[in-house]
Design goal:
291 residues, alpha+beta, Double-stranded beta-helix, 8-stranded mixed sheet, 6 helices, 20 strands, 21% helix, globular, binds fe (ii) ion
Amino acid sequence: MKNQNATLTILTSGRAIGAEIKGINIADGIDDETFKNIEDAFNENGVIVFRNQQITEQHHIDFTKRFGDIGPNTFAGYHAHPKFPNEMLVISNIKKDGEYIGNPDAGHTWHTDQSYTERPPRATILYAIEIPTRDGKPLGDTLYANAAAAYEALPQDVKTHIDGLKAVHNIAARKRGGDAPKRVNESLKDKYPDVIHPVVRTHPFTGRKSLYVREGECIGIVGMSEEEALPLIKDLSNHITKDEFIYRHQWQPGDLIMWDNCTVQHLALKDYEPDDRRLIHRTVVLGTKPF
Ligand SMILES: [Fe+2]
């Protein structure tokens, strides 16, 4: 589908989620009317991509602020951008003086960002600077799943069963593994106690309902035994990541991609080697408390 606006073109991915917005040079600034079109495309498509952007950190931060307040980066203090420690996180496997310059272990299991916080981000915005390749093909694709479409596809009896349920989200539940320093997980566990969010949440802008539950992030359901809760969490998680709900993003340097953490779950593939340089900047837009 092609949706021509005055200044931009929205090309949907043909999948249940994702669209590329063409005709926008973020560094040039965005007028209010154009921004409204971008925001609508974002709310509608869950993931939007702008290719071939040449932006500074300040452009990235300014663009983020158009969507709301900048949210805190959970890993700030460990992998914050040295010049913008409160606004920007560095995702990278590049080492300088023996230390990673960013978080090398970003999202290698399915999740929705910072669901273990009271107000998880409305959006996460990544800007790709270096992307590993092999034989000319980009590595480290990111998969995005549409948890709203997944909710809508549930049988009515399951919808009725999960209506009103609340899940317990725990920062340490995720099997982080990889290269994440243990000290990071330990200190964050104290800073972020468990939080409770509805299993079915309502989008604050569109009113669309989506599943907001994930194996590896949720450790239980309020008022339900573990024996009943964990299999339910697992079943819903597997449902969300069925192929029909997924868009797979193949990165290029210069990509700016943003996704809606209310309706989208994602997974970063780690199919590259330690020497394959990857460098991405990340900001988040503060969200509302899920309801
Ligand atoms: Fe993530």
